[in-house]
Task: inverse folding
């Protein structure tokens, strides 16, 4: 049993690395032509990235699987087709964070995401911490993207560069 458990862990790491590589290259294609910058918040909210990092590390320390959950949450935001919802299919816009209303079914409650997306409270906590420092400056989409990157670093030690300035739904 010890070796099969190691094989599962190894397979999970390989799958995660491949997903991150695919995701990173896809983001470059999706964002082509946009005016994105890795230092976008340096002057408007200088502590934004470190604030998010601390919130994500705290969440992962409390629950180790939160790292994978945050990466998956970002994946669902960017790549699960939103055209079956009442939102346009934009991707990477934080639409997965929206709550349902009486006239709107959110992506959180969509059949593709029910029971498979987690980490909303960790993102909400990161957003509250950032808002306390820089109200109305950092987009939810950026917080979600940075959280996924920081989760990758915390759990796997894999860093990938991000260019901020995504769009919120």
Result:
């Amino acid at each position: 049993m010890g070796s099969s458990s190691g094989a599962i862990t190894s397979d999970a790491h390989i799958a995660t690395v491949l997903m991150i590589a695919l995701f990173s290259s896809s983001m470059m294609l999706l964002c082509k032509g946009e005016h994105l910058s890795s230092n976008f918040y340096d002057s408007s909210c200088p502590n934004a990235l470190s604030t998010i990092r601390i919130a994500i590390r705290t969440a992962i320390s409390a629950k180790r699987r939160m790292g994978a959950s945050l990466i998956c949450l970002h994946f669902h935001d960017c790549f699960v087709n939103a055209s079956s919802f009442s939102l346009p299919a934009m991707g990477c816009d934080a639409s997965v964070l929206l709550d349902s209303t009486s006239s709107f079914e959110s992506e959180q409650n969509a059949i593709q995401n029910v029971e498979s997306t987690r980490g909303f409270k960790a993102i909400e906590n990161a957003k509250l911490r950032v808002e306390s420092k820089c109200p109305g400056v950092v987009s939810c989409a950026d917080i979600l993207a940075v959280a996924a990157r920081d989760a990758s670093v915390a759990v796997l030690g894999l860093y990938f560069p991000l260019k901020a300035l995504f769009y919120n739904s």
Observations:
- The helical segments are 2-30, 48-62, 66-79, 120-133, 140-156.
- Confidence is low (pLDDT under 50) at residues 1-8, 25-33, 82-89.
